[in-house]
Design goal:
The chain is built from 11 helices and 8 strands. It has 339 residues and is α+β, with helices and mostly antiparallel strands. The protein folds into 2 domains: 203 residues, Alpha Horseshoe (Serine Threonine Protein Phosphatase 5, Tetratricopeptide repeat), CATH 1.25.40.10; 110 residues.
Length: 339
């Protein structure tokens, strides 16, 4: 039991480090080290839990190296090939050893068993590009990314990879349009290089650069356009269940249109109840402003993960429609749990 607890804790730390570093390839050596650590720990934990012999301390010897972990995982999956998570872990382990073809095939097995896992779909698409001689996303990889965005429209890695795939095919305007919604949900450190890539793509498509970013401040600029004043409060019964580090998103989006926000504000959950004003200064997409729309749908959501995309377990309000303009005011009560 002690071994299980230690491995589980180490796996959680490694997984968190991996999940919060979508651009890890900018520091390739630490990134590969994290992948290798995750693969070893994950495979080891899988074997300890999944192997009946693990109940016998005399027979339980966790793999000590990555090749041993891979061999053990291969044996476990040969016994029971219906484990999507097992194939995912094996694929990551193959990738850590630069066995790109094997990683691609293992990810394909995982996707066949879990076709609606956006994270898995993005990993599978990436593995296909890494396994290709020209390092390009093929048609199958693009289909995987598009499916991931159907499942989770604001999935960051899928949007990033799809934009790269579009640029590889000379679809520079499409790539810029794919990336632009990310500006509203990534942090400032990531937004700066992302804007640079968007502007490069727009230039190659013959388009002008994005307008200069507008800083979100309590005092809105004079040219922020017509806005909506939004009062946001939280059901007291849900307040007792707030996850640590949760954030609040107040989002305006097109009515019956794409889920990408046309205006968004991100606040600490400690700010509730609060009143915010959504206007053009909150637009994550410079090519589509709040003031350009007659009616928008407005919703407030408490995100446990910090991601703007809704996930199971988040708290949300019922969406309300509003018309941007002087005197436009609505009140949102966050009183529902996302299922």
């Amino acid at each position: 039991m002690a071994l299980f607890v230690i491995l589980a804790a180490l796996l959680a730390v490694a997984a968190l480090a991996w999940a919060t570093a979508p651009l890890w390839r900018q520091a390739r050596v630490p990134g590969l080290a994290a992948v290798a650590l995750l693969a070893v720990l994950a495979a080891t934990l899988y074997l300890v839990v999944g192997n009946p012999d693990a109940l016998d301390p005399a027979k339980r010897r966790p793999p000590e190296t990555l090749p041993e972990a891979i061999a053990s995982l291969e044996e476990a999956l040969e016994r029971d090939p219906s484990q999507a998570e097992g194939w995912r872990l094996l694929a990551r382990a193959y990738a850590a050893e630069a066995r790109t073809i094997s990683a691609r095939d293992a990810f394909a097995r995982a996707v066949a068993l879990a076709p609606d896992d956006a994270d898995l779909l993005a990993e599978a698409a990436e593995s296909r590009a890494l396994a290709a001689d020209n390092r390009r996303f093929d048609d199958t990889a693009i289909e995987l990314l598009q499916r991931a965005l159907q499942v989770q429209p604001m999935h960051q890695r899928s949007r990033w990879f799809l934009g790269i795939a579009q640029r590889q095919r000379g679809q520079h305007a499409e790539a810029a349009a794919t990336w632009e919604p990310l500006l509203g949900i990534v942090d400032a450190t990531t937004a700066m290089p992302l804007r640079e890539q968007i502007d490069i793509a727009r230039k190659e498509a013959g388009l002008s650069p994005l307008p200069a970013a507008v800083a979100a401040t309590p005092e809105r600029p004079a040219d922020a356009g017509p806005g909506i004043t939004v009062s946001v409060s939280l059901d007291p019964q849900l307040a007792m269940r707030l996850p640590e580090g949760a954030v609040v998103y107040v989002i305006a989006r097109q009515t019956e249109g794409p889920p990408m926000p046309v205006a968004v504000e991100r606040l600490p959950v400690s700010a509730l109840p609060t009143v915010v004003t959504l206007d053009d200064g909150d637009s994550p997409m410079p090519t589509l402003k709040l003031s350009q729309l007659d009616t928008v749908e407005v919703v407030a959501r408490v995100s446990a993960s910090g991601d703007a995309a809704a996930q199971a377990g988040d708290f949300t309000s019922a969406p309300l429609h509003a018309t941007p303009g002087p005197g436009s005011r609505i009140a949102l009560l966050i009183d529902q749990v996302v299922r």
